[in-house]
Amino acid sequence: MRRIRKYRKSILILAGIFLLWFSLQSAILLTFGDVSYQLTFETNYKKQDSYSYIMLTSWADIPTNEKFINVANRPTCPGYVGNFMISASNLIYYEYGMFSPQLASFVEDGFESQTDTLNGRIIHTVFKNAKTGFIIPWQDDMSHSFLLYPSNYGTEHRIELINSLANVKFKK
Hints:
The strands form two sheets. The chain has a seven-stranded antiparallel β-sheet with strand order 4-5-6-10-9-8-7. A four-stranded antiparallel β-sheet has the order 1-2-3-11. It has 172 residues and is of the alpha+beta class. It contains five helices and eleven strands; from the N terminus they run ααββββββαββββααβ. It is elongated.
């Protein structure tokens, strides 16, 4: 009995740490889905100049005008579904995969669309109710199509995002 009292404080601290870790994992799972820490931590970031960054993922190099952190879910089908980029004040959900929604899906849901070609890359812009999203259909340098889901951020930073998407370097 004396041995237990001697280690009681250590046991309580370890139990507290375990409960905190378990609670954090549960909150992440319920909020964001099945986050892949390996893919998330494998993402590298490079500062290009005083106001632009490049997010280097396993499948693309994505230029941004804001310091985003990539949070990746475990691939559930060919591609990356349910991922997001987060900064100090913004969140953008994206999908890169064989089954990511295409332009027709958004048009059926009442979105208006516009198609631009920049740097030889076709980019569809979809918008409805102050939310703007972007679709890059599968093209030569890509393995799948890429979608930034409609958001208020997309509306506020439309030109910046289109220019960034025109300069994404996809890896096959």
